[in-house]
Design goal:
2 domains, Rossmann fold, alpha/beta, globular, Single alpha-helices involved in coiled-coils or other helix-helix interfaces, 7-stranded parallel sheet
Amino acid sequence: MTPGEPSTLVSDLAPGVLAGERRAIARAITLIESRRKDHRIAANLLLEQLRASNRQALRIGLSGTPGVGKSTFIESFGLQLTGQGLKVAVLAVDPSSARSGGSILGDKTRMERLSRDPLAYIRPSPSQTHLGGVARRTRESVSLCEAAGFDVVLIETVGVGQSETVVAEMADIFLLLMAPAGGDELQGVKRGIMEIADLILVNKADGDLKAAATRTCADYAGALRLLRRRPQDPDDFPKAMMVSAIENSGLQSAWSQIQALAAWRRAQGHWQKRRDAQARHWFEEEVRQGILARLTDDAAARAQMAQLGETVASGAQTPALAAEQMLTWLRGDDSILDDSHQTP
């Protein structure tokens, strides 16, 4: 992203994004993901301007265990949607190294056919050690893709785990992709992520694995019946289904179920309520992240953190007591936190 005045960047990018130009979309997402102060100002201005378009897409979050075939599924599923004339954006989050900070970003390579489809757009982004299976600015990238006129936005998370529940705060429908396995596989999926899944799709239901997939699907269906029904869902949701990304079987049925659930939530008023709650959640998250960023940016705060960190490392203080002292110090600095902030 080249330097420039925030207003100039916005005036250059906004028309192209609204017209669905791929180059403009790519540059805009790069702007959104930038940490530079002037880029953050421009990104906020751009998103505010794009908000006036009032376009909405079906946001689908997708996660799954390692090796389950998420990329293969997304490619087959995406091609089926584009075959129906729908515009599909894929935001794929790649795990970043905790040591080097680097990411492979190979999702476009794994989705070669879909990446060549003129109705599809694939954007891999590094998680940058951000917890929750998504990148820090994925939510804003989703909003940008909606403004660009995409009908469906697929959000592929890093991988299954308890923290993957964060994706539920930016998706309308959440799919959990699972592979055929034995009964112990249920122990590998925590209750938290099971409770937010709208559809559990047992992938690789083909060839020699079809029988195992049938048993696994039945196991998940039984487990879902034990969960308390959610008020925003019809009686038969959440549910488990079998699909095969290789044979393209079950994909149309899964899409029909997604559409049915989305239509039901809209008719019952749950759709907009959920989006309103998500907007509030991300407002509060931005406030929290902003406070943490100010701690990092302030030289005096960094020095105080380092000093107290040394006392903790040497065993002279407990982490809890040192943290209390740090918060007391912050309350004395009006430029970072007001004195009205109290610790729990």
